[in-house]
Amino acid sequence: MKKLTTEELINQKGDLNKLRSAPRNEVYLILDNIRSMYNVGAIFRTADAAKIKKLYLCGITATPPRAEIEKTALKTIEYVPWEHVPNLKFKIQNLKKRGIQIVALEQTDQSIDYRKFKYKKPVAIIVGNEVDGIGQDILDLCDSAIEIPMHGIANSLNVATAVGIVLFETIQ
């Protein structure tokens, strides 16, 4: 077994411009009021790895270019389609009109284990603020809610970690 270098991994991918224009998974990700720019950068990196369709940055969520985002994104910002959304409610209504299932990653009285949920693509996953989660006004617009079961003392995971877990289940 030999560890691959960054250069070897990049060479395996071939032409990066072709990679940028290659088909994407029918998964959208909505970041609602994410406070930490490091979380935003980590989510860009995970969104690139999962090759999602588009990333929407809403509310107080910081947008590139920012050094703090770029530090954890590791150059993926230029490969992930993204958009700043000033009005999340309007964006959700627009996505629904396009037939996109809207799913909140949030603990609610009706949340379904993310591993048992039936994802209908195209799907948009909403993640919320690190402290307050997704507001009730946004939850009211969602088709469903999913959650990651917590088996320890913690009630939740870091938002970037949770995104990684759910995105890779969603693209299966």
Describe this structure in words.
This protein has helices spanning 6-13, 16-21, 37-50, 67-73, 88-97, 136-139, 159-170; strands at residues 25-32, 52-58, 82-85, 101-105, 112-113, 123-127, 144-147. 35% of the residues lie in helices and 20% in strands. It has a single domain, classed as SPOUT methyltransferase, trefoil knot domain (Alpha/beta knot, 3-Layer(aba) Sandwich), CATH 3.40.1280.10. The two termini are 27 Å apart. Helix 3 packs parallel to helix 4 and helix 3 runs parallel beside helix 7. It has 172 residues and is α/β, with parallel strands linked by helices.
Q: How many discrete structural domains? A: 1
Strand tally, please?
7
The CATH topology is given as: Alpha/beta knot
Q: Give the CATH superfamily.
A: SPOUT methyltransferase, trefoil knot domain
Q: Mean pLDDT score, rounded?
A: 95
Structural class: alpha/beta
User: How large is the share of residues in beta strands?
Assistant: 15-25%
Q: What overall form do the CA principal axes indicate? A: globular
The total count of helices amounts to 7
What does the main sheet amount to? 7 strands, parallel
Strand order of the largest sheet: 3-2-1-6-4-7-5
Which CATH architecture is right?
Answer: 3-Layer(aba) Sandwich
What gap, in angstroms, lies between the N and C termini? Answer: 27 Å
Query: CATH class, anyone?
Result: Alpha Beta
* H and E string: HHEHEHEHEEEHEH
Low-confidence stretches: none
Cα Rg: 16 Å
